[in-house]
């Protein structure tokens, strides 16, 4: 009788633990992902460059040198990998980028940043393969006095066939020139 009660107790404990674990996993899945966003520019000849990314928020966290460590490849946003699609051949920070689809990563550092243009596409943001890099280019980095709560990517057109790609979060702006290759 004692063994059967003990066995029932053990089975009940396992069932309760399983139910709690399942409930915790379901709760994790309910957490909202960072919202999606898009930055794009249309050159005078009608060709476009589009970046799709997710916008994490600071939420009182230290971002660069904290949540996003220095000298480690960062997914440049959240969730799925940040994608760049262009129907124009480009020069980004001096690197030749043929028309097509790419993933953007960054390498933030205390002394400078690099934009990584990667040929692998469609992956989750943390699935980085250095062997798929098309190019790594230097970015200009500036500090600003007030912080940006939500990560933002912009493509600010500067002429008929060029723009500045800007990454803006916390009190850091990293930027690089994007030109249509003629």
Order of helices and strands: HEEEEEEEEE
Contiguous low-pLDDT stretches (5 residues minimum) are: 19-29
- Measured by DSSP, the beta-strand proportion falls in over 45%
> What is the overall pLDDT average?
89
Coarse shape: globular
| Major sheet attributes | 9 strands, antiparallel
Spatial strand order of the main sheet: 1-2-3-6-7-8-9-4-5
Q: What level of helicity do the residues show? A: 10-25%
* Whole-number total of structural domains: 2
| Cα distance spanning the termini | 87 Å
Helix- and strand-based class?
alpha+beta
**Count of helix runs:** 1
List the helices and strands and how they pair.
Elements: H1 2-30, E1 36-42, E2 48-54, E3 82-86, E4 90-92, E5 95-97, E6 100-107, E7 113-118, E8 133-159, E9 162-180
Antiparallel strand pairs: 1-2, 2-3, 3-6, 4-5, 4-9, 6-7, 7-8, 8-9
Protein described:
With 182 residues, the protein is an alpha+beta fold. It folds into two domains: 1-31; 34-180, no CATH class. The protein has one helix spanning 2-30; strands at 36-42, 48-54, 82-86, 90-92, 95-97, 100-107, 113-118, 133-159, 162-180. A nine-stranded antiparallel β-sheet has the order 1-2-3-6-7-8-9-4-5, with no helix packed on it. A hairpin with a 5-residue loop joins strand 1 and strand 2 (48-54). The longest helix is centred in the N-terminal third of the chain and has 29 residues, at 2-30. Residues 19-29 have low confidence and may be disordered.
């Amino acid at each position: 009788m004692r063994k059967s009660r003990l066995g029932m107790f053990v089975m009940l404990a396992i069932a309760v633990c399983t139910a709690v674990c399942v409930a915790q996993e379901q709760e994790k899945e309910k957490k909202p992902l960072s919202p999606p966003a898009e930055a794009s520019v249309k050159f005078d000849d009608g060709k476009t460059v589009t970046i799709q990314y997710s916008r994490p928020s600071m939420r009182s966290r230290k971002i660069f040198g904290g949540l996003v460590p220095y000298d480690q490849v960062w997914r440049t946003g959240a969730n799925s990998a940040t994608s760049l699609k262009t129907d124009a051949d480009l020069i980004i920070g001096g690197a030749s980028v043929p028309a097509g689809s790419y993933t953007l990563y960054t390498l933030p550092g205390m002394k400078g940043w690099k934009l990584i243009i990667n040929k692998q596409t469609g992956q989750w943001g943390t699935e980085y393969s250095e062997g798929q890099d098309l190019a790594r280019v230097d970015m200009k980095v500036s500090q600003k006095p007030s912080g940006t709560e939500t990560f933002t990517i912009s493509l600010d057109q500067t002429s008929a066939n060029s723009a500045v790609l800007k990454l803006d979060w916390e009190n850091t702006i990293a930027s690089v020139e994007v030109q249509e290759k003629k």
